[in-house]
Write a structure and sequence with these properties.
The complex is a heterodimer of chains A (301) and B (119). Chain A is mostly helical. Chain A has two domains: 7-214, Cation efflux protein transmembrane domain (Alpha-lytic protease prodomain-like); 222-295, 2-Layer Sandwich (Alpha-Beta Plaits). Chain A has helices spanning 7-37, 40-67, 79-109, 117-147, 150-178, 188-215, 222-234, 268-285, and strands at residues 241-250, 253-261, 289-295. Chain A has a three-stranded mixed β-sheet. Chain A is elongated and about 90 Å long. Chain A starts with 6 loop residues before the first helix and ends in a 6-residue tail after the last strand. Chain B has a single domain, classed as Transcription Regulator spoIIAA. Helix content of chain B is 44%, strand content 32%. Chain B is built from four helices and five strands. Chain B has helices spanning 26-38, 57-72, 84-92, 105-118; strands spanning 2-9, 12-21, 44-55, 76-80, 100-102. In chain B, α2 (57-72) links the parallel β3 (44-55) and β4. The chains are: A mainly alpha (301), B alpha/beta (119).
């Protein structure tokens, strides 16, 4: 049976696809400007652009897979695929960081003024993509708010950092060109590339930590745990014993299992009604959550 | 880090806690509560939270489960000397109505004895 994506799924896929195409074009232009200028900051930008393109590509592939079907093969969603994508991007970030660091050290040892037509290509590229990234960020943020999707939120974060990087690189290039008569201006280019490296390091740390924690089935945040307890406190007289609460995240989905014991004199219908109330209330309060209440007479193994 | 001391004074027992009650330390309190609920001489359990500076959801979960167990075992359970930030956490979780809360352990024991006598 074929699976037809709904309007929201198509919107997400279209937004991701535009991001991938824009990213691919940007990678091509960056490579040309690096080759034609020998600038460290443009090399750092090219590597960062490449990483962003990979992240956008992985997001788009994940969304596309869901929209094209095969969802029935993943009863618990494709959250872990998103986490694995994040981990892969994190590893690539570290590799790119090492290249940026090595190139900056080389430029500090043998400094030279940056020059060539590649610089002008770089300036034009930064101006154009500053506009494009700002627009795409606005679109991604709207989609992320609607869907509570970490993939779209990650894409939004990448785009806003990209727009800020565009502005920074533009400034670095303009300064390098306009101050070329000064000897010390030769160090502007590798210094700026190191700053891009630092931003990459911070991004890698964030990507790694969130992806690894989610892959390890991290429990819910305290604010959501409090919501669960509040709900159970509200139903205090409806059950006999609380034997445990388990929760985990998988991508944008949240899974909560509550183990309750009920008075054996209660009918199945009565118990089912209480369970339904708890489930409906919690699912309405915790976005993208799937809550289940299990009957238990002892704590879960 | 959580320090737990308990003073058995039949028919009551006072559990004095000091430190943080979080996911790491909560199981210690849970085990002690389970043990005391099996003990005949602990008909009234008063938990003194005067030296507790932080309670996480894992700690609240122990109190919620403990309240159910105490009710089932027909034992009295009360809390006392909650610091403002701890009181706030209990309020946030909607759990203040589930417990008798007093300002001193003596007050808690007296209330529990009185309730037990009238029951």
């Amino acid at each position: 049976m074929s699976h037809l994506p709904d309007d929201t799924g198509r919107d997400k896929e279209a937004a991701a696809r535009v991001g991938v195409i824009a990213g691919l074009v940007d990678v091509g232009i960056c490579v040309v400007s690096v080759v034609a200028s020998n600038s460290a900051v443009l090399l750092a930008d090219a590597l960062k652009t490449f990483l962003e393109f990979i992240a956008l590509l992985l997001s788009w592939l994940a969304i596309r897979r869901v929209n094209r079907g095969n969802a029935h093969q993943f009863d618990y969603g494709i959250g872990k695929l998103e986490n694995l994508s994040g981990l892969l991007v994190g590893i690539l970030m570290i590799l790119c960081l090492l290249i940026i660091l090595g190139n900056a050290i080389r430029n500090f040892i043998s400094p030279a003024h940056v020059a060539g037509v590649g610089l002008w290509v770089g300036v034009a590229d930064q101006i154009i993509y500053l506009g494009i990234n700002s627009f795409l960020y606005w679109r991604s943020r709207r989609a992320a708010e609607r869907e509570h999707s970490p993939a779209m939120a990650a894409q939004g974060r990448l785009l806003v950092s990209r727009a800020a990087a565009n502005a920074f690189i533009l400034l670095a290039l303009i300064l390098s060109m306009s101050l070329s008569r000064y000897h010390w201006a030769m160090y502007l280019d590798p210094c700026a590339s190191l700053l891009i490296g630092v931003s990459l390091l911070l991004a890698a740390f964030g990507t790694f930590s969130s992806s690894v924690y989610d892959l390890l089935d991290r429990t819910l945040e305290e604010q959501h745990q409090f919501l669960i307890l509040r709900e159970l406190a509200g139903h205090f007289d409806d059950y006999e014993a609380l034997h445990g609460i388990r929760s985990r995240r998988a991508g944008n989905r949240v899974y909560v299992e509550i183990f309750l014991e009920f008075d054996p004199r209660k009918t199945v219908a009565e118990v089912q009604q209480i369970i339904n109330q708890i489930i409906q209330s919690l699912q309405s309060k915790i976005p993208n959550s799937h809550v289940s209440v299990a009957l238990a007479d002892r704590p879960p193994a | 880090m959580l320090e737990i001391q308990h003073h058995l004074n039949p028919p009551g027992v006072t559990i004095a806690l000091k430190g943080h009650l979080d996911a790491v330390t909560a199981p210690q309190l849970e085990k002690l509560l389970d043990d005391l609920l099996q003990t005949e001489s602990a008909q009234h359990i008063v938990i003194d939270l005067g030296e507790v500076t932080f309670v996480a959801s894992a700690g609240l979960r122990v109190f919620l489960a403990g309240a159910k167990k105490a009710k089932r075992a027909q034992r009295g359970l009360a809390l006392c000397r909650l610091q403002p930030q701890v009181q706030q956490v209990f309020e946030l979780a909607g759990m203040t109505s589930l417990f008798l809360i007093h300002s001193t352990p003596d007050e808690s024991h007296a209330t529990l004895r009185q309730r037990s006598a009238t029951a």
